[in-house]
Amino acid sequence: MNQSSIEQLKKTPLNARHRALGARMVPFAGWDMPVEYSGIVNEHLAVRTKAGLFDVSHMGQIELAGKDALAAVQKVSTRDAAKLSVGQAQYSALTTSEGTFIDDLVVYRLAAEHYLLVVNAGNIEKAYRWIVDHTRDVGDVAVVNSSSRYALLAVQGPAALEIVQQLTTIELSSIKYYWFAHGEVAGVRSIISRTGYTGEDGFELYIPPASAERLWNTILETGAAAGIAPVGLGARDTLRLEAGIHLSGQDMDETTTVLEADLGWIVGWKKDDFIGKATLERQKAGGLERKLVGFEVTAPGIARHGYKAYAGGGEGAVTSGTQTPLLKKAVGLAYLPIGATVIGTEFEIDIRGRRTPARVISRQFYKRSGS
Amino acid sequence: MYPADRRYTKDHEWITVNGTHGRVGITDYAQKQLGDVVFVELPEVGRGVTQGQAAGTIESVKAVSELFSPVSGKVINVNATLASKPETVNKDPHGTWLFDIELSSPGEVDTLLTSDQYAEFVK
Predict the structure, then answer these.
(1) Which of A40, A301, A352 has the CB atom closest to B61's CB atom?
(2) For residue range B61-100, what is the model confidence (pLDDT) as tens digits?
(3) Which residues face A185 on adjacent strands?
(4) Phi, psi (5° rounding) for residue A243?
């Protein structure tokens, strides 16, 4: 990569901190991001056994406010946002009229008529344009891309609560999963959200960018005794895959529907309408031709993104795959012909020219105890 | 940093040679670039390999890369302990061998980099 293209990459407020910590930096969705600090395996295990601190400030924030904010959210997001109380969040999707993905997102109800939508870094502009274009006729709602107003830190792992609790007077154990509170963390004004992308308990802290470096340093110092480690995008990917969580743009995109991605649970079938609802209803009634499944490779070898699968007399494709650092086995996600998607089905993956046996298993490869 | 008792390739393998017997591994630079190694696929014993051609694969958590043979010849032994402990490639790259080879053209060794040349190459 030459100098000019490095300069074009966007930087989070913590860019200098990552470099000072010796992170290996890579371009990701237009951002200059840390992929690893001490090594992916070490960071992955830190999150599973102790705690990890992530800079995910590259994520995008889009806010909708006004009398008709709920109607606007209902139109563009698949899930029923009317069920959200103030202080609650939900995982959902922005879909095309074909029921395919613009992006997945988390919808926060900040106030009665004020919603915060968190989208993926590579899709901020696209998602923002999509929402603006499709809510023009909704009525009284302002749509604002407020991504530059937030830095986002994630503290994840079994020790996350104990670490963050030392820095705030908010009673963290009273915040339920996928709920949030407003409060100060180490004196920094935060949205304290009990959410994450790792399969562990933890918190995501939406904070002013100017305070990001101070809070980052304070969390690392406070969590040192509990063994907290800074964690990069490399382990973020292995953690989410091991927990069976989709990656937008890789496991689903504008060519795959919400049902094909096996995310029917985020479709608000009973709400009035949303973009793509009619198509999804037809697909639900008519049946799927393919579906995303979890798999394990049952012979030596690791299946990776883009590898071809042969199942049930047809073809499929691996969308994510790795050898997971905790389970130490090769697992992944793949679209397979519907007849081959039952748990236990044996199929084959072309691993660099060699047909390698694999088996469909539950995609929640790792499940934390107590969850 | 890079031991002088062996030769190196621009693909980041090393080879020690004793007569027509060679022993192959990957360099510290290579293991750092790869990150945590989780799977090593070695050539079958008895297989013929050609200098500069793929002889196996090394996979880290994030990527797969090919292992090239530094010289031509026949594979006579592979390090079976790597199947269960691939991480030793990261811990001790210059002390961890991958496969042994009976050289068919020992003169090829002279085409490889010395430790000084390799150190310069990866600088």
Answers:
(1) A40
(2) 888 999 999 999 999 999 999 999 999 999 999 999 999 9
(3) A188
(4) -85, 0
